UniProtKB/TrEMBL annotation:
Protein name from the UniProt record: histidine kinase
Lineage: superkingdom: Bacteria
InterPro entries assigned: HAMP_dom, HATPase_C_sf, HATPase_dom, His_kinase_dom, HisK_dim/P_dom, HisK_dim/P_sf, Sig_transdc_His_kin-like_C, TCS_sensor_his_kinase
Endpoints of the signal sequence: 1-31
Span of domain Histidine kinase: 250-471
Catalytic activity: ATP + protein L-histidine = ADP + protein N-phospho-L-histidine
Pfam family, one: HisKA
Gene3D superfamilies listed in its UniProt record: 1.10.287.130, 6.10.340.10, Histidine kinase-like ATPase, C-terminal domain (3.30.565.10)
Coiled-coil residue spans: none
Amino acid sequence: MKLPSLFRRTPFRLTLLFLALFAATASAVLAYVYVASASEARARAEASVKAEVEGLTAVYRTRGRDALNQVLVERTLKGGPYLYLLMAPDRSVITGNVSESPLDPPKADAPPSTARWDDFRLTDTDEDGRVRRRGAIGVEMTLSGGEHLFVGEDIGDIEAYLARLTQALWGAMIMVLLLGVGGGLWISRGVERAMGGLNRVVTAVQEGDLKARVPIRHSGDELDELGEGLNGMLDRLEGSMASIRHAGDAIAHDLRTPLNRMKAKMEVALIDAEAGRTSGVDALSVALDEADALLKTFNTVLAIARLQAGGAPDPKVFDAADLAADMAELYEPAGEDKGLEFAAEIEKGLMIEGNQPFLAQALANLIDNAIKYTPEGGAVMFRARRRSSGDVEFSVTDNGPGVPDEDRERVLQRFVRLDNSRTEPGSGLGLSLVTAVAEAHGGRIQLDEGPGVYDGRGPGLRVALILPAASRTPEA
């Protein structure tokens, strides 16, 4: 028969395991307490009986049998826990408060002075007339005149105390076990409810509901941490799916115009070729240029997706100053061709860890955008430096038209192109690729206003790519 789900939960099983361990430990402790208490009680009883025997034998040695008999009578009449019996050499009773020795007679070959210790049971009746058997301990020895002296002590009260102690300990352990089982059931029910919420969310997500979220109880325990982590993962998943849907829609929207343009040009080229007004080679050249632009857009989107999915591939430690110097040398002629003042300020020893080709593409996008949108006669400044925080910063500053404050977050998204950039070629993926590269390397991108309006130009734009410094040395 299958057990209810509550009893199959891990918390309940752990509770039973801990209770079993506790019961075993408590039993061991109980056994130790009982044995130690019993041993201590026996040792004290033996010491008490031994002291009593020494006193009585001292009376016998100094004053004889009659004096010993008198002392035994007095102590018997006084009462107490001790048992006395003085017997003649033939083991006939002389005096005492017991009728016979509870110990077996000594063996014939035993030395006369040997003291024989043993435990025995006393038969007694309580106030209600019920027969009781109480524990006792005693010693019998042969005196120098041949008489036999027995002295014992009733330890029934000690045994009763140990029995009550044992019952109390067992009762406490049973109560703890019952409370533990009840607590385990209560905890398991709470965990089952919490895990049920997690399972419902997982099932909903499997069925396609990406808006399902785990309710947070704000208790600060592991289940809340798991729920918050799962909710964060679902937030990113929902954002990624929305981004994919948006990217698909944007690609379809942005590619519609060049595809229509390509189709129109090819139709015109076909008509002109049939009429003999142009050659088919020129028409195919135009179509190839448009196809190259489309492939470039697809490759950029694919690169962004790979970065967002798996981070920077094959990271290595290298000096970013060398990369910055190469990029400045590569784009300085392009700036001069457009009539711009292009300058670079690069610090040395900027060690970072990452994928150099992706970082080179990101810097190329930043510098290319600055050159593209800065009017003739403007200036572009490219810097690579170490910030006071230790991070490495690449920045490109221009005095072009800039980007309004309200558009600086939006311009980092895919396929976003502002009105003042519609006349320039491009797909609106440059800054989104830079953002993906920054996030894949644990960095960020920051947009600020440039040098401001001056001589009819500006306010300009400053774009900074900020990356963490390398935490390890470059490989040999």
